[in-house]
Amino acid sequence: MNVFEETKYIMNKYNVHPNKKLGQNFLFDEEALNLIASGVNEQDTIIEIGPGLGTLTAILAEKAEKVIAVELDDKMIAILNERFKLYNNVEIIHEDILNVDIDKIAPKAKVVANLPYYITTSIITKLLKTNIKDITVLIQKEVAERICAIPGSKKAGAITYFVNYYANAEIVGNVSKEAFIPNPEVESSIVKLKIRENKLVEVKNETMFFEIIRANFNQRRKTLINSLSTVVDKERLKEILRELNINENVRGETLTLEQYAQLANKL
Predict the structure, then answer these.
(1) Distance, first Cα to last Cα, the chain
(2) CA–CA separation, 188 and 178 (whole Å)
(3) Is there a single domain that holds both residue 161 and residue 252?
(4) CA-to-CA distance for 121 and 131, rounded, in angstroms?
(5) Residue 262: which CATH number?
(6) Which of 174, 195, 216 lies at the terminal end of a domain, its last residue?
């Protein structure tokens, strides 16, 4: 039985269908599943987010020392509990990942997941503030390209700078919409985030650093001075830009991570 047949079998056996509200799309492409799990070894503790029917969970359980599967959907919990009841290295947690204390349940773990696309950014933002070692996730291709963009490039957004500060991000594969049940409306990509041992830049106040980045990208069509006018006094900002040899008419979307760090430190 191939993965597609197995997926249909489990759906029919339990009379379940993907929950659109929870962003469920069941991946059945064996090559993609193996690529997502390719960085896992027998010493690893893995946190899987949104395991659904347990297709990826089964692969991870064969490779890792332990798999902690965090699932929100009641129906999927019932399936997972029955499917993995004989596994001694699979723990199933019935909870919203955004409410889970990651460092408490598995410090220094790795995250491997097919993420719900509607909360991808929220989940990644949470994970990067923990002690997770690295992250491999399947996400919407457009979001993947933004996350992995070069800060200051056209595809960059606030999330680009946030991720780049904490991790080295790389797209390691693309997945067609035909690889899911049901087919999503978008193409997907597998992204690997390798957490940096040392932050890429030094900032005196991370809150200020991210605040000015967010403020700029909330109004990215404006010049940096105008987009940050609600955060910083314009005249003070002009003075700082002159000190940093940055044109006062620059748009914030063109600044590098280093320039934002310099600006935040001056503030």
Answers:
(1) 61
(2) 10
(3) no
(4) 18
(5) 1.10.8.100
(6) 195
User: What does the pLDDT look like over 142-190, one tens digit per residue?
Assistant: 999 999 999 988 899 999 999 999 999 999 999 999 999 999 989 999 9
> According to DSSP H, which parts of 38-140 are helical?
55-63, 74-83, 102-105, 120-127
Which helix (H) or strand (E) segment holds residue 48: the answer is strand 45-49
CA distance 100 to 76: 18
Same domain, 35 and 86: yes
Buried b (16+ CB within 10 A) or exposed e, 106-140: beebbbbbbbbbebbbebbbbbbebebebbbbbbb
SS3 of residue 150 by DSSP: coil
Per residue in 107-127, pLDDT (tens digit) is 889 999 999 888 999 999 999
**132 and 172 fall within a common domain:** yes
Residue with tokens 């993995």: 84
Q: Please report the DSSP string for 101-126 in residue order.
A: -HHHH-TT-EEEEE--GGGHHHHHHH
Per the structure, the count of domains in the chain is 2
